[in-house]
Amino acid sequence: MKIKEILDEITNESGSKAKMVALKKHSDNELLKRVIYMAKSKRVTFYIKQIPEYEFISDKYTLEQALDEIQMLADKTITVSASFHLGEVLSLVDPDDAHVIKLIIGKSLKFNLGTTYINKVIPNLIEKTPYQGAKSFSERLARVIFKERGYACSDVKMDGRYANALIDGGGVEFESRQGETTFIPENSTLVKELSRFGDGVLNGELTMIGLDRYTSNGIIASIVDIEGKCEERGETETQKKLDAFAKKHGNYQENVDKIRYTVWDSITLEDYFNKKCDSSYSRRKYYLFVKTPLLNCTRVSFVETKKVYSYEEAMEHFQEMLLRGEEGTILKDPLATWKDGKPNWQVKMKLDMSIDLRIIGFEYGEAGKKNENVYSTINLESSCGKLRTNASGMTEAMMNDITERADELIGTIVEIRCCGLSQDSKGNWSTLHPSVVELRDDKDTCDSLESAQAIENMAKGLEKLV
User: Fold this and answer.
1) Greater confidence, 458 or 195?
2) Looking at the domain 161-300, which fold is it?
3) Residues 6+ apart with CB under 8 A from 22
4) Residue 461: what pLDDT?
5) Cβ atoms within 10 A of the Cβ of 176, count?
6) To which H or E segment does residue 202 belong?
7) Domain spanning 131-158+303-350 has what CATH number?
8) Dihedral over Cα of 264, 265, 269, 274: its sign
9) The CATH number of the domain covering residues in 353-461
10) pLDDT, tens digit (0-9, with 9 covering 90-100), for 361-372
11) Closest CA to 264 of 388, 363, 162
């Protein structure tokens, strides 16, 4: 069976679960695994933005031999122009194999199955995306930073859409924390600005100028969906999506050009692939601090940060950011290196509060995913109806339980944990990052918006922390 036929089989399945089953049937095919790796691995870059014109001459090369030839593009070992070499290879393979080669060069197999799902079927085929996070709040860990360094960097905690920006040879690719591609148009102002940076990887978040983060996240998600699935949907269906977008959000290109990137860290491509960097955070920050204004960037900015000299000063800065409406701060050791994981040298200073709300409905998990047949999200509101939110984060046992008892649970009380309250541009109140703690069958009353605000104000007082 040809590789193109296998890829078409996976593409034609509907939903991630069915696609994984189709991939599983061919998971022992070494040539298929090589094709998937070359198309999906961030380590493999071909430095070609456009497929050259070519004509079929003969099937001189097998697909395996053709892969060897295009690997030379990634290794930069060819002695002729990359475009000429690729055109020659495409003209000397079977047309079906040429189709596969073009998919690989485009770094997308078009079967809409992300790296996470591929690795579930073929373990460790694609390198996992490295991500440096932060430890949950710990006074002890925070004080250790000051004891060892005498000062710390207190960065404002961002809450937009996380994205790594991989810049290689002027090309820019965004990816999520899970390693999936975040499709931002090449003609966007942001991508044009980032293409002027040197090769490397930036860590940051995507938001939009003039919009709150929650509105931004929704619009960016729509743009990513339209850009990422345009070939799969075809011209007619894509146009319908664009028309619907314009009706809801206005001109598409104007929205694309509002996308901005707030960055807080930078490492080399080699360090990124090796999942560690020995350079200090202060040095990495200085590179960004100098580079961004030098390039006259309007869509790339550096995270707001403050140098603090004591634990008490760090807590004051944290409280100031909460009162300003930010989610919190991240306390960082200025001399710390970079590594995959949640090292002790980065500590979240984050608001954490619990409130009780009433159940008004449920939502099934995403179609094609593990929880598609059970309720994975609970719709909740306050006693006054002025605060509404959708909470998830339940165990499998809890999801099964509420699915079986859904009708009888309407109107009952649930305790949730969240990072504070939020209000959108229309004045609607909700919660930040809500997760279900437990069903409270021992209660028949819940919090109002007013009492939830009082709980938030108490948490922001930080009486137990300072």
Assistant:
1) 195
2) D-amino Acid Aminotransferase; Chain A, domain 1 (3.30.470)
3) 9, 10, 13
4) 60
5) 18
6) strand 200-208
7) 3.30.1490.70
8) negative
9) 2.40.50.140
10) 999 998 878 888
11) 162
